[in-house]
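Re: export button greyed out
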Amino acid sequence: MSAITRDEVAHLARLSRLALADAELDHYAAQLDQIIVSVARVAEVATEDIPPSSHALPLTNVYRPDQARPSLSPEQALAAAPAVEDDRFRVPRILGEEA
Amino acid sequence: MTTTRTAMPYDEALERFEPVLGLETHVELGTASKMFCGCPTAFGAPPNTHVCPVCLALPGALPVANDKAIESTIRIGLALNCTIAEWCRMARKNYFYPDMPKNYQISQYDEPLCTDGYLDVEVDGKTVRIEIERVHLEEDTGKSTHVGGATGRIQGADYSIVDYNRAGIPLVEIVTKPVPGTDRLAPEVAKAYVTELRELMRALGVSDVRMEEGSLRCDVNVSLMPRGSSEWGTRTETKNVNSLRSVERAVRGEIERQAAILADGGRIVQETRHFHEDTGVTTSGRSKEEAQDYRYFPEPDLLPIAPSPEWVEELRAGLPELPSLRRRRLQDEWGVSDLDMAAMHNAGAIELVEATVGQGVPAADARKWWMGELARRANESGTPLAELPITPEQIARVVELVASGALNDKLARQVLEGVLAGEGTPDEVVEARGLRIVSDEGELSSIIDQVLAANADAVEKVRSGKIAAAGALVGGVMKASRGKADAARARELILEKLGVSG
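Workaround output, generated via the alternate export path:
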């Protein structure tokens, strides 16, 4: 049995605002299934005496100097927004009437 | 029959209940660039002009921490007597709200950079130690405007529009431990704490801490317990408290509101309340009865922060003179009482007096003008003293004019009035209004002659030895000269003319 169904992949694609064709759904469903199974193997080695790790590299203190750099133009910034008003991102109603 | 009161008078509330405070303060750091990207941070830019792939969370963009923000947070922690973590991580705070395009805020969770400190504040001549639970670093969120609906608030809005300029600006959160035992001083303690914190940030140079622009924001937690009880009550969290005065009003208002509910046998709902600057009341916001699960986890895109002890000690050694110590030093230098110093502190006059003294003015004169005439005018117009349109240099010039005898105090007050009214520098006001003391002896002498002629009774009394009656004659001269005569010289001349010695 596969770790993720084709329907679940379609659902994820919709949440991610990705328009996937039928052939792509089949393709990604198989790939994602393989990824999930591979990652699940990690759980098999994770035991009590192995502390969870958050970072793969033994690095700390990686910073950038506090220097301002040019930003995007509002046109560039808003180019992919589904809705724009007054140079701002327009988003659907956040709360209902009550609350 | 019971009547439901919405607020219990403060004194009555304090007779029956004891408040416990908690304060959560957010300080926007004054860095040149954002926390995790190079976008500028200046306030008031046109919407979405300070945004880039990182702070818009475009696919593939990765954050890198701003070294100055880390440094500033450690300096704040040190100034608040905190322990600095030797190793800590940023964390993702996940939530479903469009003020962050990533759908999470990079913050810190169980590994804050600074912990367990304190800040001492003075209220009513008493030192109150406010324990600091934690100081952590996070990023600010975007600014939402809610469209449609009557109030401009999120409730009832049709939709919202978002500007992400502020998203990603470094934000330091400073959380106190619960503060019990402040009793009826609770509102003043809360205000004194935020005031002291603001001055500390200013002394450290880490933020411009403008409450009206939101670079210093304060959430006020209040709970009440019946007198004699040791079990704390349910607290509420009041947001949108945007001035020092509001901090005080919000605490007071919440004590009065909660006391009325508890006295009627009701219960306090754990919730976020929204402070209204215009009316001073709070209204109910989001209920916090069901703890929100932010699904925090360590931020995988940022490496752990591990400040070396050497660096921390270097930062500690470089801390500036802290405001409370500075005030003590200035008090000694100026030779003023605790009470006068506290009054100057409350009026926001210390820096102004200091700058005026820096212009060579004696401390007593600097204090007299700022705490007298100017404080009165600031109070009348409801503006902070520092925002009056007059500078320490200008006060210094007025004091100089008085010292040289060119002005007396009354004329000096008119000069200040002119400067405040935008009529120019003190010298320009003196010129334009013709405010110089009448120092021309001939002119003064002729004014005195007129006054003597018109006041035969007083003249007779002075001649017969009642020197005190000369006061009325001097008054007459001041009136006739519209305040521009040198009163001491006028008195001398009057006595001389009447042939008596003062």
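Chain A has a mean pLDDT of 89. The button fix ships in the next patch.
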